Amino acid sequence: MVRNDDKSELCVREGSVLVYRIFDVADEIDLVRAEERLKALAEPTRLRLSRTAPRHIQISDPPVSVSLGPVVVPLPNGALGAEVTARVYDYGAVSITLSLPAAGASWSRLQELSRALWSGALVDGLAQEKLEMLLATLGPALQKPHRADVREDYTIYFVSAFDRPLKASELLERADLAALLLAEPEPERLASAVRESALRYALSYYQDDLTVIDWNAAFVYEPSGDRDVADILEYATSQLLELRYYDDLLDRELDEVYDKVGLRARAWSPFLPSSFPELARYLTALLVEVTDLTEKVENSLKVIDDLFLAKVYHAAVDRFRIAHWQRSVHRKLALVQSIHQVVQNRIHGARSLLLELTVVLLILLEIVLALFKVK
Fold first, then answer.
1. Three-state helix/strand/coil letters over the chain
2. Most buried among 156, 190, 257, 307, by the most CB within 10 A?
3. What residue ranges do the domains of the chain occupy?
4. Low-confidence winner among 133-147, 251-265, 267-281 (lowest mean pLDDT)
C-alpha cells in the first residue's frame, strides 16, 4: 500500500514519457537499404545495448533508428512539444516513438499525463502521419509491404532523477506506481489484488534503480540515464505485435483453406482435372513463408546469460504473454500442416485410382484384342 505521509510530493527532475505506436508494415525490411534511404531524413543509427556485452544478449540484425523531428501534442492542460523517432525492424515492424519531456513534473502531474494519454487519441494521428512519411522514404526497402490492422501501443515513464535521491524501496512506498501504470482516475479505490498485479514485475539491479512492467505501460527509474531497459521493452512489444499479426493472418488463411478444401472435395472427380495440386502448392508456400517469418521474429533476440536486462526481457515476455501467442501460431501452423497432408493424400489417392483404372482398361483392352485374334 502506498504511504501518504507528510513528506512533500515527488517531483521529476530529469525524465520523459515515451509513447510507442508499433505497426506491422511489411513481411520483411531490408535494413541495409533502409539505412541508405533514411539518410534523406537524418543520420540513422543501429540499436546497441550499452549495459551488456553482445555475448549475453544477441540481436541478429539490430534495428535502425532515425529522428523524425519535433511535433506538438495537444493535451487537456496545454500543448506539449515532443521529439519523434522511428525504429525499423527487419521482420517488418516499425516503431514510432514520441518522447514527451517530464522534467519539472510533479507526481500528480505525471498521473494526469498518464490519464490523458491512456485513450491514445492524442498521439494516434501524429504517429500515423509520421509513419506515412517514413514508409514513403523507405520505399523499396519494404519487402511485400502491407498494412495490418494489428497494432501495439505502449508507454514507458522514464525517470533518471527525482528532486531527491531515492532507493527503489522508498519509491515503491512513496509513489503510486500502480495508479500511474493503470492511468487510474480514482487510485484510492484500487483493490489490493489489482495493485499487486500491476507491481508484480518489479525489478532492480542496484538499490537506486527500479523497473516495473505492466501490460500497457512500464515505469523505469534509471539514474544512469541509459535507455537499455526501454529498448528491451520496445523490442519485446514489437515481437508481440508480429506474433499477433501472424496469428491473425493464419486465422484468415485457415478460414479460406477450409472453404477451399470443402469446395474442392465436393467438386473432386478422378475423371476431371483437379485443383487440389494448386491448393497443395498454396499450402506449401503458406507453411514455408509463415514458418520462416515467425522463426525470424522469435530468433531476432537471443538471451545467452541471466543478467539484469535478460531478466527484464523475460519479465516482459511473461507479462505480454508472448509464449501464449507463440503457442497459438505454432498450433495453427500445425493445422495447416495437417490440412496439407490431407490434400496430399487426396492427390495421391486420386492418382492411384486413375493408375489402377488405367491398368484395368489396358487389361480389358488386351483381352478384347486377344478375343478378336482368336476369331
1. CCCCCCCCCCEEEEEEEEEEEEEECEEEECHHHHHHHHCCCCCCEECCCCCCCCCCEEECCCCEEEEEEEEEECCCCCCEEEEEEEEECCCCEEEEEEEEECCCCEHHHHHHHHHHHHCCHHHHHHHHHHHHHHHHHHHHHEEEECCCCCEEEEEEEEEEEECCCCCHHHHHHHCCHHHHHHCCCCHHHCCHHHHHHHCCEEECCCCCCEEEECCCEEEEECCCCCCHHHHHHHHHHHHHHHHHHHHHHHHHHHHHHHHHHHHHHHHCCCCCCCCHHHHHHHHHHHHHHHHHHHHHHHCCEEECCCCHHHHHHHHHHHHCCHHHHHHHHHHHHHHHHHHHHHHHHHHHHHHHHHHHHHHHHHHHHHHHHHHHHHC
2. 156
3. 13-226, 237-374
4. 267-281
